[in-house]
Design goal:
118 residues; mainly alpha; 6 helices; 58% helix; globular
């Protein structure tokens, strides 16, 4: 049984550390330890690590230990993806770049001459 407020205090302290140390080995190590030692339903601390990972995922994907964490713990990876989708500002759909010939969008490279017969 936990003392009232103890989990909230742990969350507040962990959040403060994550703000300063998200781009370090310590972040990935603490995330791994937290993920392996809490139950799925214990969202308080898990949400801190998932939120930080989601916020900084582009930079963290350059870190080998973070990639290993994401690769070895599929549920963690899924939670990061879900958090990113749910908490990011929606972006308006962009039109395809007309300078890229990608076929799928039907765009053509402007540098190519139109070879269709008229």
């Amino acid at each position: 049984m936990f003392l009232p407020g103890l989990k909230e205090l742990a969350k507040d302290k962990y959040e403060a550390e994550v703000i300063d140390h998200w781009n370090s080995n310590a972040f990935s190590e603490s995330a791994e330890h937290l993920w392996d030692n809490t139950v799925d339903s214990d969202k308080l601390l898990r949400d801190v690590v998932v939120g930080a990972a989601s916020k900084h995922v582009e930079e963290l994907l350059d870190r080998g230990e973070f990639v290993e964490l994401m690769t070895s713990r599929g549920v963690f990876c899924l939670e990061v993806l879900k958090w990113k989708i749910e908490h990011e500002e929606p972006q308006s759909p962009s039109s395809p770049n007309p300078n890229i010939d990608c076929g799928f969008w039907g765009a053509t490279n402007k540098n190519k001459k139109d070879k269709r017969k008229h």
